Amino acid sequence: MFRTIFTLSVLAAGLLSSSTMAAPTEDIAPRSARAADAGGVLVAQNGDFDVYYDARGNRVIVDAETGTVLAIQPPQTRFDRRALRRERLRNLGPVEDDRYYLDDPEDAARLRRRQLEEEGLIVVPPVEEYDPYGDPVDAFPEAPLDGGNYGNNYPEAPQPVKPRTVKRQPLDEASIEPVEPTAPGDQAALPPKIGGETVIDPSLSLGARQDVAALQVLLDRAGASPGVVDGRFGSNVDKALAAYNEITGGNLRSTDVVGIQAALEQSGGDAFASYNITPEDAAGPYVASVPEDYSKKAQLDRLSYTSVTEALAERFHMDENYLKALNPEANFNRPGTIIKVANFGRLVANPVANIIADKGKKQVRAYDASGKLIAAYPATIGSADTPSPTGTHAVSRVALDPNYTYNPNINFKQGENNKILTIPPGPNGPVGSVWIALDKPTYGIHGTPDPSKIGKTESHGCVRLTNWDARELAKIVSPGVTVEFID
What we know:
The chain has 487 residues and is an alpha+beta fold. The chain has eleven helices and 16 strands. The protein has helices spanning 2-37, 81-92, 105-118, 210-222, 235-248, 257-267, 279-283, 294-297, 308-315, 320-326, 467-476, and strands at residues 49-53, 59-63, 69-73, 272-276, 338-342, 354-358, 363-367, 373-378, 380-381, 391-400, 404-406, 421-423, 434-438, 444-446, 463-464, 482-486. The strands form four sheets. Strands 8-7-6-16-10-13-14-15-9 form a nine-stranded mixed sheet, sandwiched between helices. A three-stranded antiparallel sheet has the order 1-2-3, with no helix packed on it. β2 and β3 (69-73) form a beta hairpin. It is elongated, with a radius of gyration of 40 Å. It starts with a helix and ends with a strand.
C-alpha cells in the first residue's frame, strides 16, 4: 500500500513539473512573433551581431555568425524626431489643442512659424517633409540640376514676378514722352540691393498706397490728370475720376478694384514699370539749390533740377518723395540702378478748341471742336490778393522753356526786389517749363517748380499746372483757342 502511494506521488510531481516548464515556452513564442510583426529585428546567436555603415550613411546590421544582413537603417530613421512625431500623431490622433510654452525657445519658434503659415507669409513644404524640429545634421541637399543650380521641389511655391521694363526717352527737362513697356521676354530684374541707400524720412511712405497710385496712373492715361502720382486720395483724384468718367463714358469708382485692373490692362498694362538709370540721368546738369529770392535767381544761368530724383519724378509724373519711398534701397546717382516708376502711357494728342478754367473746382478742362472733353488738369487759379481774370479770353502764344520777366510795377512784389529782373529758364523757374500766354497782358497758363502743391495753394493771378500737364496742353493748343474763366 505504501509503495502504491509513493508511486502516485512521484507521478503527480512529474506532471506538475512538466506543466510548469511548458508554460514559458508557450508565452515566449507569441512575444517573439509579435516583435517580428512590429518591425523589430530578430537577432540570432543570442545578440551576437556586427554594425557597419555603407557609403550612403546607412547603418547595416549583420549576423556575426552567419554573415546574414539582418537590417538596413537609413540615416534619417535613427533617432528621427520627424518619424517619432508622425508616429505619435498616428497613435494619438489629431491634436485639438496644440499648446505652446513661450518660455521654451523651440515652442516659441514653432508658434511664430505657425502664425506665419496662417497669414500666408511662408510656403509650407509637404507634410511628410515638414518638421519644425528638424535636425540639420541628418539633412542631405538635393542633387544639383544641369548647370549646378538647385531646383525647386515645390511647384506650388510662388515664383518671383519680374517687373515690366520701359524704353528710356531722351532726358529733356520736364520731359513727358510716353513710357513704352517692352516685350515680356525682355523684362528687367528687380532693383538690386546696393550699398548707396537713399536717405528718406520714414514718414514719406505713410498713407501712400500702390492701389491708389495705380488708379492715378489709369486716370493720367485717359487724359484726366490727378496731378502727381503719390498713392494718396484727395480732391485732385476725385476731380480726375469725375473727368475720367466723362471722357470715357463709364462709371468707374475708386473702390472698383476689378474694374480698375481691367482698364489698366486695356490701356497699356501694369501701372508700374522698371527704368534703368542712365549716365545722362546721373550727370544732369543740376544746381545745388534754388534760392527763394528773385534777385539771386536772376544771377543763375539756369534754374535746373536739383537732383536725379527730382528730374525722374517729373519725367514719370510722380511725387519725388513717393518715388523715393517706392525705391528705398536705390542709389539714384548710380547709372545702371533699376527703379520702379509710374507707367503713365501716351499723351493726349487731339487738338483743343476751347478751355475752361474753373476757379471753384480748381481745374482746367480742354474740349475739342465737337464739345467733347478730352483732357482735364488740376490747377491753382489766382488768389484773393491777386485774382485771376474773368470772362473769356484767348491764347496768344506758346513758349517752351521760357525766361520770366519780373516787374514789380505791374505784377506782385517779391521780397525787397524793386527792380525789373530777368529770371533764367528752367523747370524750377517761377513759371516752370511752359508759358501759354493769354490776350490779357501778364496773364497766362504755365508750369510750376512745386508740382505737389498744385490745386492746394494760391497763385499770383495766373493758371498754374504741373510742368508735364502744361507741356501736354501746350502741344494741343494754338493761338486763338478760347479760355473761359468760371467761378
